[in-house]
Here is the input.
Amino acid sequence: DIQMTQSPSSVSASVGDRVTITCRASQGISGTLGWYQQKPGKAPKLLIYAGTGLQSGVPSRFSGSGSGTDFTLTISSLQPEDFATYYCQQANSYPYTFGQGTKLEIK
Amino acid sequence: QITLKESGPTLVKPTQTLTLTCTFSGFSLSTSGGAVGWIRQPPGKALDWLALIYWDDEIHYRPSLRSRLTIAKDTSKNQVVLTMTNMDPVDTATYYCAHRWRGFFDYWGQGTLVTVSS
Here is the structure.
């Protein structure tokens, strides 16, 4: 299985801050990485697909980059509604695997 | 508009078999490329992908659970059914079904919490 490791596990930030979350794959996955946002009690929401693609309806302050084994999710200017847990997922090979999550908290 | 909804028992006893149904609309599993997956999330923990079924009956399972899982589709009812045998308390989780698109899950059901307890 491909292991996905996110860092940090949690981060505190303020509204307006720029935040970057990293996801590292245990082997190369080309650009087959997605990012999800999950709020308490809700299903995950797809934000970024194929490493850099912005899912329809997702604000442009979210962006993804990377390929191979190292990927990042950047939120350019945090909004109150962005405080949530974020997960990466690889779709390069089965079994699909998710990272352990990064909790983004209000400072 | 794509929607999915999970249904099934909220409580099962250890060793029992869990059967969950995902009822969806807005797409067809008889159309080329269509696929539905199951993902679970233990309380306070991360997401775990379980299984995936394609329109052409291609199926993939999480290897560590392969012996316990069965996924099947009923295209006439727009449903996907997941069965998991020999349930254990560690299987307590919210179970989601989701529409697969380009390898990712773009539409999700609301999830159903399944508790395994005697």
Remarks:
- Chain A has a mean pLDDT of 97.
- The first strand of chain A starts at residue 4 and ends at 7.
